[in-house]
Design a protein that fits this description.
- This protein is mainly α.
- The chain has one domain: TorD-like.
- 71% of the residues lie in helices and 0% in strands.
- It has ten helices and no strands.
- Helix 1 runs antiparallel to helix 8, helix 1 runs antiparallel to helix 10 and helix 4 packs antiparallel against helix 10.
- The longest helix has 33 residues.
- The protein is globular and about 55 Å long.
- The N and C termini lie close together (5 Å).
- The relative contact order is 0.18.
- This is Dehydrogenase.
- It comes from Desulfitobacterium metallireducens DSM 15288.
- Keywords: Chaperone.
- InterPro entries: DMSO/NO3_reduct_chaperone, TorD-like_sf, TorD/DmsD_chaperones.
- Pfam families: Nitrate_red_del (PF02613).
């Protein structure tokens, strides 16, 4: 194994797991107190990965920092206000300002469970990834798509550690394709809707982090795929 490339790749792959874990938990379900404790930790805003490399991530982190200064999420009222903002934006019961399904952006009629959903499901099934709420929640929900990227990020790290470079290249290529064909096609519009519609600044901040990171991750995947892992024998 090329030791230089391996030593460069591992921290980046580990960071991808960390970031996708945070992003999937942000959008997959209503904010839990456990999740918010993670966000309230100073390390989240002071040491979030790639904040200096991407202006949108930097802006999102700064917005979250200000939000945390102005709101005590340990207060039941403040916590419930944040829950309501998530519910109003992403769940209902009224018309959703910022629906979290790919089909709502890429389907002409803005209907769910359409062609986009089936394409996403096909990508999942190649890795035997079965969403938690299969057949109850459309497969192209943002939280599930981010969860899929998280699972593949863990798998790519595992392949590197076991020096399975063929498996590593395939899973990195599939992640790059999934970003290009799915997430990057609709998350920018979703981000704009969240920025326009939120009552609180928490989800606009997280949406900026999400949008900035997806763009940055595509560059990271290109870099990872360009590395020559096999040029030095094990």
């Amino acid at each position: 194994m090329n030791q230089e490339n391996g030593s460069k790749a591992q921290p980046l792959l580990e960071m991808r797991v960390l970031v996708y874990d945070i992003l999937r938990r942000t959008f997959l379900e209503e904010p839990t107190k456990e999740f918010l404790n993670l966000i309230m930790d100073k390390e989240f805003t002071e040491e979030f990965p790639f904040a200096e490399e991407n202006e949108e991530i930097h802006e999102g982190i700064a917005q979250i920092a200000v939000f945390l200064q102005e709101h005590d999420l340990k207060s039941e009222k403040e916590y419930n206000d944040l829950l309501w903002d998530y519910t109003r934006l992403f769940i209902g019961p009224d018309k959703l300002p910022a629906p979290l399904w790919e089909s709502a952006y890429l389907n002409k009629e803005r209907l769910l469970f359409q062609e986009q959903t089936l394409k996403v499901r096909h990508a999942y099934l190649e890795y035997q990834f079965l969403p938690k709420y299969f057949r109850q929640e459309a497969d192209d929900h943002l939280g599930l798509e981010l969860d899929f990227m998280y699972q593949l990020s863990e798998l790519s790290l595992n392949y590197l550690q076991h020096q399975d470079f063929m498996g590593l290249r395939k899973v990195l290529t599939d992640q790059k394709t999934f970003l290009q064909e799915h997430l990057l096609k609709w998350v920018p519009e979703l981000t704009a809707k969240i920025l326009d519609s939120s009552n609180l600044s928490f989800y606009p901040g997280m949406a900026k982090i999400l949008n900035g990171y997806l763009t940055l991750d595509l560059e990271a995947l290109v870099e990872l795929l360009d590395m020559d892992y096999e040029s030095v024998s094990k």
